[in-house]
Amino acid sequence: MRAGSLYLILALGVSGASTLLFQIIARRSLGPDRWGSVAILWSCTFLASQVLWVSTTQTLARHISEREARGDGWLAVVHAVHRLGLFLLGGFVLLVLLLSPVFSSRLFAGEAWLTAALVAAVAGYAFNYFRRGLLTGHRQFARLSALLITESLVRLLITAILLGLGAGIVGPAIAISAAPVLGALAVRPSPSASSGADGAPFDLGHAMGFALPVLVCMACAQAMANGGPIVIGGLGGPDAHVRAGLMLNALTLTRMPQFVLSPAVNNLLPHLSRIAAIDDRRAFDRFAGTAFGLIALAGTGLVGGTWLLGELAMRLTFGTDAAMDRVLLTVLALLAALYLLNELLNQILFARGMASLAAAGWVLGLLATAVGILVFKMELLARVSYALAIGALVTTVALASAHLLTSRTRRPTVPTVPDSTTP
Questions:
Q1: What whole-number distance in Å separates Cα of residue 172 and Cα of residue 232?
Q2: In a 3-state reduction of DSSP, which class is residue 309?
Q3: How far is CA 409 from each of CA 46, 187, 274, 278, 402, rounded to the nearest angstrom?
């Protein structure tokens, strides 16, 4: 477990640095206005991909690891999640076709081909996240780390080459669309035989029973994490694309520690599920408490560091025309810190089979965000930033309350097998 966490931390550090470099190169090459279109494509891609495909990844991760812990077969899980992924992809493509005029006119400023790039990118991530789920479920973290590094470096390399050839916004758009498939093709799971025991049946209905609440969680979470630039671009007004690009740059800078820690937090689910499968309550609580303390410490450092150095880092990274107020940057850093805590609380509730409670907490937070956007009387960028942070805080309170209140009703358990629970 420790080796796996180390692999992921190193990989996510490389991936985060590559992502930041991708944005620096693209913004400086394209300028604020043309970069705004790419920023909205980026936000739409990751919002849709994480909403749709994290649910399949988490379903694979939880149920493969849980069945391996019990000595049951897991191939039925893979087949069911594969069918679920095809169903979700078909629904997404149909929705984009129906809304394509809105995408082209409101979000992409008349660049209709960017809608096609969005569909290609999200379809590529369907394959990418399915492979991540297999690797996570089997705890093949070295290979998962290689996939994450390859994907981010491919995106950076394609962008640099095409921008160097004068491709304009076509270059980053192609890179965003191609990187998920190329990254996943470069890393295959190592062979892992399914147990001969069939275990309980697992079909599409079982997959949807877990995946749909996770999908609701991710829809709300990604609306908070990546929806800011889309909201700004969609509401329009003078320089909307410029402000949307500035919002993405600020989110990227303040979320750098989140880029490193967030996938590592999500990959705690197999371990938590294994502990839950053997019914060891004390080990589960000890592991969850340690992880929560570490994430809270990292979040405190993130907020404090942004308050001290955020303005300077923003100017040095993205240029003097990308300046943002220190208070506003700190609000976005608080959003990132709360988001990390919420992801950990997700994993705890998912492992305990309480994904529906987690979904309810996220819906409550998203409603708080929507109310804030409508009610706050301030400049659009500030209004969206404060509303997102308040929504994340409401979600934290709701998820923590759900876990603590239901923990009191759990019966005491005795470990059935020895297990190490050090993160």
A1: 21
A2: helix
A3: 37, 43, 21, 18, 11
> CA of 58: how far to CAs of 66, 90, 143, 205, 415, in Å?
12, 20, 17, 16, 25
Instruction: Establish how many alpha carbons lie within 13 A of residue 155's alpha carbon, considering only the half-sphere containing its beta carbon.
Output: 30
Q: What pLDDT sits at residue 419?
A: 35
Do the Cβ atoms of 337 and 303 come closer than 8 Å?
yes
Rg for the chain (alpha carbons), in Å?
21
- Specify the residue for token string 């069911």: 80
Task: State the Cα–Cα distance between residues 300 and 396, nearest whole angstrom.
Answer: 15
Instruction: Answer positive or negative: Cα dihedral of 376, 382, 386, 389.
Output: positive
Decide if 220 contacts 238 (C-beta within 8 A). Answer: no
- Say what the pLDDT of residue 423 is: 31
Please name which of 8, 63, 375 lies closest in space to residue 203, comparing C-alpha atoms.
Answer: 63
Alpha helices in 103-186 (DSSP H): 113-137, 141-164, 170-185
Nearest to 388 by CA among 190, 216, 231: 231
The pLDDT assigned to 177 comes to 94
How many beta carbons lie within 10 A of that of residue 206, not counting itself? 18
Residues in the chain: 423
**Residue 40: burial class (beta carbons within 10 Å; 0-12, 13-18, 19+):** buried
Report mean pLDDT in 10-residue bins for the chain, 423 residues.
65 83 88 81 86 86 80 83 91 90 73 88 94 86 89 94 91 94 87 56 74 86 82 71 80 78 74 75 85 90 91 81 83 93 91 88 94 88 91 95 78 37 31
| pTM (predicted TM-score) | 0.69
Give the residue from 291, 391, 384 showing the smallest Cα distance to 338: 391
358 Cβ neighbours under 8 A, 6+ residues apart = 213, 214, 217, 345, 346, 349, 350, 399, 402
Note the pLDDT of residue 416: 36
Q: Where are the domains of the chain?
A: 2-407
Both tokens of residue 171? 């270059």
Q: Are 412 and 281 in contact (CB under 8 A)?
A: yes
What are the structure tokens assigned to 50, written together?
């994480």
Q: Angle between the 355-375 and 380-407 helix axes, to the nearest 10 degrees?
A: 150
pLDDT the model gives residue 277: 72
